[in-house]
Amino acid sequence: MKQLQEKIRTDGKVLSDSVLKVDSFLNHQIDPVLMQAIGEEVASKFADEGITKILTLESSGIAPAVMTGLVLGVPVVFARKRKSLTLISDLYTASVHSFTKNETNDISVSKDYIKSDDVVLILDDFLANGQAVLGLIDIIEQADAALSGVAIVIEKGFQNGGKMIRDRGVRVESLAIISSLANGKVEFIGEVSAK
Amino acid sequence: MKQLQEKIRTDGKVLSDSVLKVDSFLNHQIDPVLMQAIGEEVASKFADEGITKILTLESSGIAPAVMTGLVLGVPVVFARKRKSLTLISDLYTASVHSFTKNETNDISVSKDYIKSDDVVLILDDFLANGQAVLGLIDIIEQADAALSGVAIVIEKGFQNGGKMIRDRGVRVESLAIISSLANGKVEFIGEVSAK
Description:
Chain A is built from 6 helices and 12 strands. In chain A, α6 links the parallel β9 (about 145-155) and β10. Chain A is globular. Chain A starts with a helix and ends with a strand. In chain A, α3 crosses α4. Chain A is α/β, with parallel strands linked by helices and about 200 residues long. Chain A has one domain: Rossmann fold (3-Layer(aba) Sandwich). At the A-B interface, α2, β3, α3, α4 and β5 of A face α2, β3, α3, α4 and β5 of B.
């Protein structure tokens, strides 16, 4: 997605060979016009999939997910992050390890909002090691719902999450895939659609 | 806002005389079409105020804030909640006490995203004791920015936050104001605009 790549190039901050900060339009400050364009792009890719629900993770996934939900005409559910959860019977929970922060959080979704007849699109802001997406897939499996695919705003193509999830046979659509952050420079590979 | 009141009546769950759960369309599952209507309503109330930025709080404020930002054509910034923050020089921070959870969290905003020439609209999902809004006002004051007003999706009119903030001379616009949750029944008072 050209508009997104340009935004990343002009406003993203490369902090290291593996860390890209996009706090100015996605992760802290949000550009609503860009989010709308992202929503339209994701919706166009999954328009014919019979999606009934979008599942994302608080907080940075919410804005692009809601814009996508508006175009597709379906509700959005955001999984909640918690340090630890005592077992609560009305929640689906999964553990998500963050390699960046070196901590494990539980994520949870109420059983009321993902049902076995749902066709779910997962949407998240970043895909790096894939742990968050795996946690969301786990929740969809617990609910016995169908997974339509995964939409990602920014994929770090040089980390293994995208390959790992595509290797499971899951359709992953990333709007921007970064091939390298070396030398403070963002390089992209073409938009990849792999089933 | 009639559409919102009807949604609260049909889909809200009254858990006690003071607790209303709206997890099915605002706080966990999100209704994007309703969020868009909320965004249009808030934007129409503050259209002539020269707003340059919307400030909200993760996670439930993000969806209505982004829809409002889209209509007003301005960026949204969401304050982050953290259990405790060591002093970081590039952040504005404020403490917010939750009476419901009986805990105090720090909220923070990067100094990059609220500047002294900003005219800021605060938007949040709920107004009850007003502690979150007071924390956000604190951050705007630290940034020496101008506060245009406060937009709230659901105000609990039987708690003191709304009065406290209006008494400071701040314009508060709540799209639905609940006068009572007694006997498991939601009662509203008319939309109130008080400067």
